[in-house]
Amino acid sequence: MDKFVITGGNRLTGEVTISGAKNAAIAIIPAAILSDGVCRIENIPNITDVSSITRILYDMGAQVRTIDKSTLEIDPRKIHTCVASYELAKHIRGSYYLLGALLGRFSHAVVTMPGGCDFGVRPIDQHLKGFAALGASYKLDGGMVDVRAEQLKGSHIYLDVVSVGATVNIILAAVRAKGMTVIENAAKEPHIVDLANFLNSMGADIRGAGTDVIKIYGVEHLNGTTYSIIPDQIEAGTYMVAAAATSGDVLIKNVIPKHLESITAKLEEMGVEVTEYDDSIRVRREGPLNKCNIKTMPHPGFPTDMQPQIAVLLSIANGTSIINESVWDNRFRYIEELKRMGAQISVDGRLAVIEGVDHLSAAPVKATDLRAGAAMIIAALCAQGTSEVEDIQHIERGYENIEEKFRNLGADINRVHIAEPVIARAI
Ligand SMILES: CC(=O)N[C@H]1[C@@H](OP(=O)(O)OP(=O)(O)OC[C@H]2O[C@@H](n3ccc(=O)[nH]c3=O)[C@H](O)[C@@H]2O)O[C@H](CO)[C@@H](O)[C@@H]1O
Ligand SMILES: C=C(OP(=O)(O)O)C(=O)O
């Protein structure tokens, strides 16, 4: 097991290049199961969630060829099972997309309840409601979801909550179904649009992705394709906040500025200078940070996946800020870690009240989940002294080469191996 040792105080400067989007990649890789040919997928991030989902496809019989460090070719034609490996699938959220993809391709899927970050209960009732509307039946047995259909038929589905996962899964199941499916109250995140573009490049007929009504006209076949994944909105946002937290000046390259608007707006409200270019964004801070209130919302609102990182910035801003977490019941577990570094925060249900302090101080902290881990790195980068961030396996689920990218910006960050304790055996 490794940890990061970070000495704070260095101003981040220079350039960083953003990798492909985690939440698009882990939808698009299983979507390749639906193809009747070879899918060449470019701009794939080198993160552990991607290696897990790719390995699951490989174990099911897909031929997977690495072309270069960010390009894979997937040929799904030799997949011989509808059952996904429990060991790998249980750790990642993206494994739930195997349900939609296998169902859409083989009318049958058996996949464990998904893993991912622990925000309390993360139900999949809307996914199952969507599958049922398309004519599938399902049973939940021993933590496994078994979903099957004679023939999937297009349907009209209204989502009771705006769900990224349910929207993706219904698209995957409906794309080869008979007839037209309409998803109302669909999620609008950039990775939904990316998935629809990927499938359309294979010959699917999906319209309206990026709005809250998506229409999917079922097709009989899907071709192979070549497709490049969009840049990661949340990775970009993380470096934007890190630049601001360290009074830095960073050019963040390979981004889609439109996807970053909600983050840009909040940074500007706090007094940070943000300049947009065609496919890059510069973040510069010289003065103090102003307080600011944040409410997380589905896209195009402020992303919940940026909530822990922005909390670090608010913890060193002038005045009292409030964060309202409207997506997840329990996404403030990291606050106790941040308080160890001197942040003054009180949590009441889905509200966090943050009294800005003059500075944070180094402490040993844990990454309680993926974005919480990114937040701990940012906190350590702007704190006085040397901090240690443990449980970095969570961070590696979603950030490619994070220590190298930060080091190139001038951060003092090192990865250190933690030796496993040797437990003496009683004789
Ligand atoms: C792999 C991936 O893309 N993960 C993202 C995805 O997670 P995920 O797809 O799990 O999140 P959803 O958009 O589905 O969840 C949003 C809300 O809907 C609720 N809900 C969801 C499904 C359901 O069947 N029933 C239900 O009640 C959830 O409890 C939550 O309160 O979107 C989240 C919200 O942007 C992000 O934080 C995650 O990073
Ligand atoms: C919550 C996240 O991921 P997952 O849904 O994969 O746990 C995230 O990317 O911030």
TrEMBL record:
Coiled coil: none
Subcellular locations according to the entry: Cytoplasm
Residues that, per the record, bind phosphoenolpyruvate: K22, N23
Metabolic or biological pathway: Cell wall biogenesis; peptidoglycan biosynthesis
GO molecular function: UDP-N-acetylglucosamine 1-carboxyvinyltransferase activity
Record keyword Signal present: no
Record's catalysed reaction(s): phosphoenolpyruvate + UDP-N-acetyl-alpha-D-glucosamine = UDP-N-acetyl-3-O-(1-carboxyvinyl)-alpha-D-glucosamine + phosphate
EC numbers: 2.5.1.7
Keyword list, A-Z: Cell cycle, Cell division, Cell shape, Cell wall biogenesis/degradation, Cytoplasm, Peptidoglycan synthesis, Pyruvate, Transferase
Binding positions (UDP-N-acetyl-alpha-D-glucosamine): R93, R122, P123, I124, D125, Q126, D305, V327
Protein's name according to its UniProt entry: UDP-N-acetylglucosamine 1-carboxyvinyltransferase
Organism of this sequence: Anaeromassilibacillus senegalensis
Gene that this polypeptide is encoded by: murA
